[in-house]
Design goal:
The complex is a heterodimer. Chain A is mainly beta. Chain A contains two helices and 19 strands. Chain A has a five-stranded mixed β-sheet, with no helix packed on it. In chain A, β9 and β10 form a beta hairpin. The longest helix of chain A has 29 residues. By secondary structure, chain B is mostly helical. In chain B, α1 runs antiparallel to α9 and α4 packs across α9. The longest helix of chain B has about 30 residues. Classes of the chains: A mainly beta, B mainly alpha. Bound molecules: protoporphyrin IX containing FE (2 copies) and copper (II) ion. The site of copper (II) ion has 6 residues of chain A, from loops.
Chain lengths: ~250, ~300
């Protein structure tokens, strides 16, 4: 009897602590006000990711270990560093890393896509929102494994045979960037930026980015490149204002 | 040790040793080719016994197939030893090998399911070298030379030779563990490279002492020479492995030069481990300690 009481006394604060911490972490985001992109009053932050110096020559990928992959390409070069003709850097992830007021942003219902095609990933870099669905498909006649090398979110590794059903995945925590790779074809590597708000972009073949509807404020704008790493620039915007911010990388 | 030489048993032990070395090479290929996660499931592969062997699946699933074969061979070896007229400790060594190969298989499966945590992959790498050393030891214990019996010699050195010879495999295992944790990126390779100078010195000390004083003793001389040669090769391959890793650090995929040298370094690492175990066994078997060292005539060979 005595022991039983002692045990209960010990357990009570533990269960209390447990339930408390549980509800707290849930309320963290749920209790926050729902935020909306303000297209009329919001500011625009845009710019380019510039690249100075000679563009590194990327190696031709050796796909001979899987001839089916090889047949789909002539000479396929790695996409690690792609410098555009206008001296800008492609595949750079740009986002607001810090400074937004605490709020809960709704993930879009639109599904993001990551396709395995010709034993490469398409797109090479992309951004999605926390909670948004990412559909991973295999357009190839060969087997792939898909390994999300996430550190904040739980990592996973799953096989995706040809004509298999697409995989629908969500990430619940912000994480920039998550490498997604295939070990069947070790050259296959792509990156997914998972952001808690909608202010992010990936540079394309003109190296530019544009974030619209940003609430007025002072932000840490960050560029992330798989080879050249992170760069941050502080930027302040007033309502309806347009700010231009350029990042510069060099080799 | 009344056991007679059994040719079939010894040949089978040699077969097991050879297959295990092949398995170590196959395993090292998995790591060097970055193939470890190409088959996400275990014990099945892509939900089947035999997945399509394309790309790196060939290396990962091939490694699993060879491992299965070696597992079965080890069980057969243990059963054969158990039913043979071998001494009890040898029978137990056979059982220990089976325990080792099962543990190794489970570690391999876990490292796949948990996506290659460095601690598990490194343990898998270390246990592989220990298991290989066990198969080599069984091959020696069943050999004609071993059955012929010990040839005692006397050691009057300042440091007991039995002690330093027993310490050597422990030290080599430590070096292997540093190499494995470096290879699986748990720690930098600097510790492994720095410690290699100490390990090489220890190897030189033990082997030169044997070669200087017991050169006429066949088993001791041979084990010492093997240890010396294998260690030199290993240091050379280590430098080549390091340089090729450095040179291909920015590559999009594993480059053949790097794969060749790192795989050879792992395989010869297994030989180094086994050679140090063998040397310790031979020293413990043949070398007798003789009391306090004398000022003159420190080493006397008795044959
Ligand atoms: C039973 C005997 C086995 C032996 C002796 C063995 C040996 C080895 C060796 C020597 C390596 C290379 C380690 C390195 O280079 O650092 C390796 C890697 C590996 N082995 Fe095994 N293995 C065995 C069984 C298995 C099994 C049954 C699996 C099942 C899935 C497995 C999965 C792996 C994987 C995934 C790697 C790569 C680890 C990494 O890259 O991190 N092994 N194995
Ligand atoms: C007696 C000497 C040595 C022994 C016994 C030894 C053993 C090993 C072993 C067993 C591994 C791989 C562990 C695994 O299976 O995962 C390894 C890895 C490695 N060793 Fe050594 N090693 C020695 C000397 C050296 C030296 C002298 C160097 C370089 C100067 C070196 C450089 C390396 C490097 C860079 C790796 C990692 C390879 C990779 O990243 O793939 N080793 N060593
Ligand atoms: Cu693939």
């Amino acid at each position: 009897m005595k022991r039983w009481v002692g045990g209960a006394l010990l357990l009570a604060p533990l269960t209390w602590l447990y339930s408390c911490s549980g509800s707290e972490s849930r309320s963290n985001t749920a209790a926050l006000p729902l935020a909306q992109v303000d297209a009329t009053n919001g500011a625009t932050i845009s710019g380019k990711v510039l690249f100075t110096g000679a563009a590194p020559v990327m190696p031709v990928i050796d796909m001979s270990s899987n001839p089916t992959c090889e047949r789909q390409h002539g000479e396929r070069r790695a996409e690690i560093v792609v410098v555009n003709p206008n001296h800008t850097l492609r595949n750079t992830f740009v986002w607001i890393a810090d400074g937004l007021p605490k709020a809960r942003w709704q993930a879009p219902s639109a599904i993001a896509h990551l396709d395995q095609k010709g034993c490469t990933y398409q797109p090479h870099v992309q951004g999605i929102m926390v909670g948004q669905t990412l559909e991973i498909s295999n357009s190839d006649p060969v087997n792939h494994n898909v390994h999300a090398e996430s550190r904040v979110n739980a990592a996973w590794n799953e096989s995706e045979p040809p004509r298999a059903e697409t995989r629908l995945k969500r990430f619940q925590e912000q994480e920039v960037l998550i490498p997604v790779s295939c070990s069947v074809h070790p050259w296959m590597r792509s990156y997914v930026g998972v952001v808690a708000h909608p202010f992010f972009a990936v540079t394309g073949d003109d190296g530019s980015f544009s974030l619209r509807g940003v609430p007025p404020g002072t932000y840490k704008l960050e560029a992330v490149h798989e080879r050249f790493g992170r760069k941050q620039i502080s930027v302040t915007v007033a309502p309806q204002q347009s700010a231009v911010v350029d990042f510069t990388y060099g080799s | 040790m009344a056991a007679k030489y059994q040719r079939g048993l010894h040949r089978f032990a040699l077969l097991l040793t050879g297959c295990t070395l092949l398995l170590v090479v196959a395993g090292a290929m998995v790591t060097s080719k970055d193939a470890g996660l190409s088959v996400p499931d275990w014990p099945l592969s892509y939900g089947r016994l035999m997945p399509p062997m394309e790309g790196n699946i060939f290396y990962e699933h091939g490694h699993r197939m060879i491992a299965t074969a070696v597992g079965l061979l080890s069980i057969a070896m243990a059963v054969w030893l158990w039913r043979s007229a071998s001494p009890r400790w040898l029978k137990i060594t056979g059982l220990a090998a089976v325990g080792g190969v099962i543990a190794q298989g489970v570690l391999g499966g876990i490292t796949v399911l948990w996506m290659l945590p460095p601690a598990v992959s490194s343990s898998h790498a270390c246990l592989a070298e220990l298991f290989f050393s066990t198969t080599v030891a069984i091959a020696v214990f069943t050999s004609r030379g071993w059955q012929a019996g010990a040839v005692p010699v006397e050691d009057r050195g300042l440091l007991p030779l039995r002690f330093v010879a027993l310490f050597l495999p422990v030290f080599v295992l430590f070096q292997v563990a540093l190499g494995a944790t470096a290879r699986h990126k748990a720690i930098g390779s600097i510790y492994h490279i720095a410690n290699s100078a100490l390990v090489t010195s220890a190897v030189l000390y033990v082997t030169l002492r044997i070669l200087l004083h017991f050169a006429k003793h066949d088993a001791l001389r041979r084990s010492a020479i093997v240890m010396l040669v294998v260690t030199f090769a290993q240091v050379f391959l280590g430098i080549a492995a390091y340089m090729s890793r450095l040179a291909t650090a920015d590559a999009v995929q594993p480059i053949p030069v790097m794969v060749t040298f790192t795989v050879m370094h792992v395989a010869v690492g297994a030989l180094t481990m086994a050679a140090s175990v063998l040397l310790a066994i031979q020293v413990c078997r043949n070398v007798r300690r003789v009391a306090a060292p004398q000022a003159s005539a420190r080493y006397v060979t008795v044959s």
